[in-house]
Amino acid sequence: MDLGLKGKVAVITGASRGIGFETAKTLAEEGAHVVITARHEERLIEAQTAIKEATGVEVDYAVADVTDLSAVQKAIADTASKYGTIDILVNNAGGHRAGSFEEVDNDAWRFDLEIKIIGVANFTREVLPYMRKQASGSIISVLSNSGKTPGPKSVPTSPARSAGLAVIKELSKEYGEYNIRANAVCIGYIRSEQVENMWQNDPEKPTWEEFSKQKAKDTHTPMGRVGETAEAAKVISFLASDAASYVSGTAVNIDGGASDAM
After folding, report:
1. pLDDT in the model for residue 97
2. What is the pLDDT of residues 29-50, one digit of tens each?
3. Does the pLDDT value for residue 1 go beyond 80?
């Protein structure tokens, strides 16, 4: 299926590693002009090189902390100056801090909310004028299935993701008249850098297959394994594309069936 992404301009936050990196690679393979952003230039250069080696396509990069409004504004202005517009925004930047409600301090709350709410607002606010002007656009936020069904000892990450879902729903309602779509993906256990580190540091030294199977059992994942970043990237790319032209305001679970929520 041709997703109709050739020539589209996509900005992806938190794209030097993991799902963001894999999404950038997938969109580049589909012919999109891709700009990857993250906080550390050296990691962005590594990602740019890896994507070029894998796809033959050179993506652009912009150093931008999502919470630094001036850096965000520069990244979007530079992208629009080069390509004329912005068609796709993937809000992927994030951290993960989870603990007992009584033990988590306000600094941890601020950290998660700054990234998943203020950071999303910063990038989204900057791309909306371009999308409104051309009467089209796709915004995707990468969140967690815990945003739908928070578990115990999951603050502040679960409430921050729940708020992120509300932002997506609001955007779909307010900007649908401009043919701007807003959707989310709710991730379960995916083979991210964080999960890789958990595996490498496991004192039992299991194989990846053993670790994946056990993690799926621990998280009640019916499909019996940890997901791959490429699997998430394909869903995100679909939502970004014209193939999903009437999909807006929804949140797609990418968790192997783990979540109890639809």
Report:
1. 79
2. 999 999 999 999 999 999 999 9
3. no
- Amino acid 143: pLDDT: 98
Domain count, the chain: 2
How far is 62 from 66, CA to CA, in rounded Å? Answer: 11
Is 91 contained in some domain? yes
Two structure tokens written together for 166: 């509300």
Domain of 217 in residue numbering reads as 191-226
Give the pTM: 0.97
Shared domain check, 184 and 220: no
